[in-house]
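hiii, so i know i said id send this last week but things got crazy w the move. better late than never?? heres the sequnce for the chain we talked about at the cafe, plus the structure i predicted for it. fair warning i was half asleep when i ran it
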Amino acid sequence: MTSGLIRFGLALAVVLGVASGSQAGDAKVKAVASFSIVDDMVKNVGGDRVEVITLVGPDGDAHVFSPTPTDAKALAQADILFVNGLGFEGWMQRLETSSGFKGPVVVASTGVKPIEMHEEGHHHGDEDDDKGEDHDAEEVSDPHAWQSLANGKLYVANIRDGLIAVDPAGRAIYEANAAKYLDAIAKEETDVKAAIAKLPPERRRIITSHDAFGYFASAYGLEVIAPEGVSTESEASAQDVAKIIRQIRAEKIPAVFLENISDRRLLDQIASETGAKIGGTLYFDALSPPDGPAPTYLDMFRHNVGALAAALSS
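okay and structure toks below
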């Protein structure tokens, strides 16, 4: 009898030991990130303590993403969810509901001062088109706040605090990783400002396929014109394209840029009719695959600035 109690006690101790070890941080925090840029940030801050699943991967378009049952299962098993916010993931509430996820949600853009944008609706009918009237236009917040490195620092701080809240035992690791990452972001910010400052002021004007560069333009001194709105779901009308072509010709805008998730036919048309140079591909809403030119958040800035400098320097 005594021997049986001893064996039971030892077994219970082993079970409790495993459980307490898990609580102490032996098991990785299971995190879900809404898209590739937030995913990269979470991995930088979380390091080896965090296992991250990203919903919208490299070269993916989060504006038109449709979650699958596999995504719902991944979220249901997660300890924490990281999203961009600012209306970027219009499908997220639906996914949270279907998955039954009740854990903490970290909105990475918390604290960002949003840029308001004028989002044009579609034209309705030939008569309205002739009058040049737009319908369903509204002011919306530009969700692409990560395109300013100053905002990127806020993202990192919010991610750090979210991980500490769900895994207090990892505080020292998260704080050290975040501090190192913030230093790297600050250095990149200095480099970006220096590179843009070298461009002739009259050439700091570009056309992009999708209006996702507003924070970058505001922070670093570019003028950006986009034939499409803040979401890739919207399409430029023939009237919009004609207006942009006239503007490029009148203002001698030197270059047009494609986004990695956009259809390039529109920019090809604009370039062929204006003579503006296609300056290459910029990464706005998604990182590249690991073997591409922009596999990380900081690589994205290095690539984009390099492409801008090459197209606009002369």
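btw The chain is about 50% helix and 15% strand. thought thatd interest u
miss u guys!!
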